[in-house]
Design a protein that fits this description.
The chain is of the alpha/beta class. It has two domains: 262 residues, ANL, N-terminal domain (Rossmann fold, 3-Layer(aba) Sandwich); 154 residues, Rossmann fold (3-Layer(aba) Sandwich). 33% of the residues lie in helices and 24% in strands. It has 16 helices and 28 strands. A seven-stranded mixed beta sheet has the order 7-6-19-18-20-21-22, sandwiched between helices. A five-stranded parallel beta sheet has the order 9-8-10-13-14, with helices on both faces. It has a three-stranded antiparallel beta sheet with strand order 2-5-15, with no helix packed on it. Helix 3 crosses helix 4, helix 8 packs across helix 9 and helix 14 packs across helix 16. The radius of gyration is 22 Å and the shape is globular. The two termini are 13 Å apart. The mean pLDDT is 95.
Length: 465
């Protein structure tokens, strides 16, 4: 067994969300859970009871309660929470307060060498913008089940557009603006969106790139697109290739009250895509209730995210982690958006954003951490920061070596929950991930996700322990 690099304190274990959840479950079921393995085994042996208890524990907002938790244990064909009606956006926008919902940054410009803080939205302001966008979409004929696409940078407007679609029961699909025309048509051509939100340009590696030509061609190639809304990038200037600018579009939804279309638990919420490495990208449709519950479980129990925490997961709008981090809003946490190259003009750039903004939960790829470890000249502690508020560092997308684990504890912070999380676009969530109550061992992911029966098989199909 590999070396233990971190052990949570008893105080931290006592105050974790996972401990609170386990105690409540134990009281309700009159079952003792001496360790995580016992809890996990119970969660898969009592699948319906676990997920129904978690639904109630999280206080998910719904308008109709289910009549059945799980229709069958056979796949395909199993259906969850039959009869339930709810709305994803309603659950994310439940906190109508002055607390910060979103803080957004873009990569450093050539003048200052520091990432630019471009916008901050409170939960109340986010609700107002979502209401205006939803009303404008409705005026343009968008209704339940319609597809809307985003060719968008990782900016607050993308979040607003996505949640506006969800509030109407429309289906959201997004790609980052660095996608070329053919890659975009391969994806959106299958979705056939009626409306497209498109960033006017984006910044990466110190350069600014216009999307105007791609946007103009996209509308020609996808005749079902009725309108393109141009979202101006927060820095630099560029010509727009859309039919209407963002602010003008929002003006169509003035004086709007926020309404939430109630949809079945399995109603489509997101359309994501496979990588396209073995053929054309394939659509993957994700339902409303399953997405919300899985994300809440992972963020709340496995990542120990709480109201008032600050989550920055470096991602683009073309990666499932963008959809995943959105659900943190349902917990009352602030999401930090970063657009551009996280290592420009130096690998310390995004670390400085994390440190200077007192981020509590930071997510990135294993590859980025390996790049930081191998940097020449080496990154200094002074250049990275002290990370006084950082509690959890997540990595995914690629493995992290044993040396990478050690680099984190030697150079970032000794008292830190380093959580490998691994799942896939096909489930828009995780199979294995972190656990705030367990030790971190060099080179290992801590545990299997609750309520998910995960096994690894050898070449002969036998289960590996």
């Amino acid at each position: 067994m590999s070396q233990i690099l971190w052990q949570p304190s008893q105080a931290r274990i006592a105050t974790s969300n996972l401990t609170h959840f386990t105690e409540k479950l134990s009281q309700t079921t009159h079952t003792s859970f001496p360790d995580y393995q016992a809890l996990h085994e119970w969660s898969i042996e009592h699948l319906e009871a676990f997920w129904e208890f978690f639904l109630d524990y999280t206080r998910v907002i719904y308008s109709k309660r289910h009549t059945e938790v799980l229709s069958s244990h056979r796949m395909p064909g199993a259906r969850w929470f039959t009869g339930m009606e709810l709305n994803y956006a309603e659950n994310l926008l439940r906190h109508d307060t002055d607390g910060v919902a979103i803080r957004a940054f873009v990569e450093a410009d050539q003048t200052t060498g520091r990432p630019a803080h471009v916008r901050e939205l409170s939960f109340a302001e986010l609700r107002t913008l979502v209401a205006r966008c939803a009303k404008a979409l409705a005026k343009n004929g968008i209704t339940r089940g319609d597809r809307v696409a985003g060719y968008v940078a990782n900016v607050p407007e993308a979040v607003v557009a996505c949640l506006a679609c969800a509030s109407l029961g429309a289906v959201w699909s997004s790609a980052s603006p660095d996608f070329g025309l053919e890659a975009l048509c391969d994806r959106f051509g299958q979705v056939q969106p009626r409306v497209v939100f498109a960033s006017t340009h984006y910044r990466y590696g110190g350069k600014t790139f216009s999307t105007k030509k791609v946007v103009q061609e996209l509308k020609t190639r996808l005749p079902g697109v009725e309108r393109v809304i141009a979202i101006p990038y927060p820095v630099d200037g560029s010509e727009a290739g859309g039919d209407v600018m963002w602010e003008d579009f929002l003006a169509e939804g003035e004086d709007a009250g926020l309404k939430f279309e109630q949809v079945p638990f399995e109603h489509p919420l997101f359309i994501l895509f496979s990588s396209g490495t073995t053929g054309a990208p394939k659509c993957m449709v994700h339902g409303t209730g399953g997405t919300l519950l899985q994300h809440r479980k992972e963020l709340q129990l496995h990542c120990d995210l709480k109201a008032g925490d600050r989550l920055l997961f470096f991602t683009t709008c073309g990666w499932m982690m963008w959809n995943w981090q959105l659900s943190a809003l349902s917990l009352g946490a602030t999401i930090y958006l970063f657009d551009g190259n996280p290592g420009h003009p130096a690998l310390s750039a995004i670390w400085q954003v994390v440190d200077q903004n007192a981020v509590t939960h930071f997510g990135t790829s294993g590859r980025f951490l390996e790049s930081c470890m191998k940097a020449h000249p080496p990154l200094s502690r002074a250049a990275l920061g002290s990370f006084a508020r950082l509690r959890t560092l997540m990595y995914t997308g690629s493995p992290l070596s044993v040396d990478g684990f050690r680099w984190v504890y030697q150079n970032i912070k000794t008292d830190l929950h380093l959580a490998g999380i691994s799942g896939g676009t096909d489930i828009v969530s995780c199979f294995v991930l972190g656990n705030p109550n367990l030790p971190v061992r060099a080179g290992e992911i801590q545990c299997r996700g609750l309520g998910v029966d995960v096994v690894a098989l050898d070449d002969a199909g036998e289960v590996l322990e």
